[in-house]
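Section 5.1 Outputs to date
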Amino acid sequence: MDAVNLATSITTGLALAAAAGFRAFVPLLATGLAIHFGTIDPAAGFEWLGQPVTLVALAVATALEIAAYYIPGLDHMLDVVAAPLALAAGVVVAASVMAELPTWLRWLAAIVAGGGATAATYSLTSLTRAKSGLATGGLGNPLVSTAELGGAILLALLALLAPVIAVAALVWIVVAIGRRRRRLA
């Protein structure tokens, strides 16, 4: 096991999982495309993410998720329903790229660290959306949705192209969450 490849696969997985906290399907689609075009090698058993039928399904799901977050009221309902979906997506996408780990350790890391990264970013977005909804009567939520989408795309791309920078962005997100929580306390 090469230490650099191991570290890269873990950091990539964590950053992709964090992106799932912004939008569940964006990092799955990005990872599927990267697998399909041979940019990354998936962990054993995750080749299906790069299959054309999977990519079409993920593209449709991504488009529907993005559109739904721009509909006032529906965005708040999605925040409640989407939490388990985002966590599942974060775990799956993290496990799919941690190819250098033994299977048992890959799943443990994906569940604990990947799920934690997803939960951290998801809590940040939910809190931001709730505050925006209260402050603007929901009128500011499209701006929040755009920022969340941008965060998901940027973090997913960085995870796949520059994992070290993606982890730096992830650390920045964790610091932002900590600061936000202190303000609310």
